[in-house]
């Protein structure tokens, strides 16, 4: 039964995210989500309670998917390569769930733990680069924030059709150059 609820929740969240992007916040209703997912309204109300419950679930699910993608990024003995793989995993997660990606970074949600859990791997990867003396500095936070802001901006540009995936990888590489130990 848990797998059925997980699968149904995923379908409903994805349907709601598409409606939110296509019709805006005013166009999102539990009834529309149910129709788009091909179910009655009963499971939607049972799973989410109300529209805010659905939005909260969408927000959590976006960060859950991002966290899973980051956790699946390879971890090797090469700290810099692993940092690059993390940046590519971030992009892949955003492109896999573009409708949720935009919602994840809007205000009004109290799931800071979910967001923070997806940021911590980046901080740890930068700290590994610093410990390996690949990057300068001893505080990974400002470097991680810079790299995250760049990755987020580039992904947003790619989702808007303004850049390509090749440009994303190239720009991440340029960003890393700023912190290389010379």
TrEMBL record:
Residues 6-66 form the HTH tetR-type domain. The keyword Oxidoreductase does not apply. Residues 29-48 bind DNA. SUPFAM superfamilies: Homeodomain-like, Tetracyclin repressor-like, C-terminal domain. Coiled coil: none annotated. Pfam families: TetR_C_33 (PF13305), TetR_N (PF00440). InterPro entries: Homeodomain-like_sf (IPR009057), HTH-type_TetR-like_transc_reg (IPR050109), HTH_TetR (IPR001647), MT1864/Rv1816-like_C (IPR025996), Tet_transcr_reg_TetR-rel_C_sf (IPR036271). The keyword Repeat does not apply. It comes from the Bacteria. Keywords: DNA-binding, Transcription, Transcription regulation. This is TetR/AcrR family transcriptional regulator. It comes from Dactylosporangium salmoneum.
């Amino acid at each position: 039964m848990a797998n059925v609820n997980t699968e149904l929740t995923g379908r409903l969240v994805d349907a709601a995210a598409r409606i939110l992007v296509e019709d805006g916040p005013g166009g999102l209703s539990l009834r529309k989500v149910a129709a788009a997912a091909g179910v009655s309204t009963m499971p939607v109300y049972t799973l989410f309670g109300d529209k805010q419950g659905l939005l909260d679930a969408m927000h959590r699910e976006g960060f859950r998917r991002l966290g899973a993608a980051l956790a699946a990024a390879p971890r090797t003995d090469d700290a810099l390569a692993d940092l690059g793989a993390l940046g590519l995993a971030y992009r892949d997660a955003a492109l896999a769930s573009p409708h949720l990606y935009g919602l994840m970074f809007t205000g009004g949600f109290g799931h800071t733990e979910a967001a923070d859990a997806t940021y911590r791997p980046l901080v740890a990867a930068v700290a590994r680069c610093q410990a390996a003396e690949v990057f300068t500095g001893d505080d990974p936070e400002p470097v991680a924030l810079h790299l995250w802001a760049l990755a987020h901006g580039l992904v947003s540009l790619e989702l808007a059709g303004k850049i390509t995936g090749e440009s994303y990888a190239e720009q991440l590489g340029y960003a890393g150059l700023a912190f290389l130990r010379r």
